[in-house]
Specification:
Largest sheet: 5 strands, parallel
Helix content: 25-40%
Shape: globular
Strand order of the largest sheet: 2-1-3-6-7
Number of strands: 7
Length: 195
């Protein structure tokens, strides 16, 4: 059994990201894993960090404290998010800006051998589902998988989650029902293995 925390990173109440998150959760639970799930649209917090540097920080709202508690609890973190304008939705980026702070997510006082802050959330793996209108070949060739690399290396990997595996689902704005069913089945298969 694996402790799995799922974050639906779409800011709208109804979305493909939500459907993927729920399919993953149902399958994971059916296969004996312990699951917690959050939906970005339900979380109430100020997404604006509002300061330069880390000398001053806003107190975390209860929903951000809950996000961090779930992230610390889990052994496997699952994120489902759309790609908008080549990056994360603003509220999702704000969640990471606000919640992943020195002392809880990374330690700048104890750099590693190459001078990077020490990650404090080691021992967790991650799966990221990215929905996009950009076809996979263009996503790789023209955009060099920039958003998944940001999530993998500069956000989740930076705080210690490894490995971070990405599943790109595209084109996602108006997919046929058969395509959506295939994607949901793919999420269910990965959830059974906590992968």
């Amino acid at each position: 059994m694996t402790r799995i925390y799922i974050l639906n990173g779409h800011p709208a109440e109804t979305s493909l990201s939500k459907a993927l998150s729920l399919a993953y959760a149902r399958s994971a639970e059916a296969n004996g894993h312990e699951v917690r799930i959050s939906h970005l649209f339900d979380l109430d917090f100020d997404a604006d960090y509002g300061f330069a540097g880390y000398r001053e920080t806003k107190p975390l709202e209860p929903d951000l404290e809950g996000f961090m508690a779930n992230l610390e609890w889990c052994e496997h973190f699952v994120l489902s998010t759309p790609m908008w304008w080549g990056g994360l939705p603003g509220k999702l980026k704000g969640l990471f800006d606000r919640a992943l702070l020195p002392g809880t997510a990374f330690d700048p006082r104890n750099p590693n051998m190459i001078g990077m802050p020490a990650p404090l959330l080691k021992g967790r793996s991650s799966r990221v589902f990215v929905t996009s209108d950009t076809p996979g070949w263009a996503f790789s060739m023209f955009y060099k998988k920039a958003m998944p690399r940001q999530i993998k290396d500069q956000i989740l990997g930076f705080v210690g989650l490894k490995p971070v595996k990405t599943t790109l689902l595209a084109p996602a704005s108006h997919p046929k029902p058969k395509t959506v069913a295939r994607w949901l089945s793919q999420a269910e298969t990965l959830a059974a293995k906590a992968a």
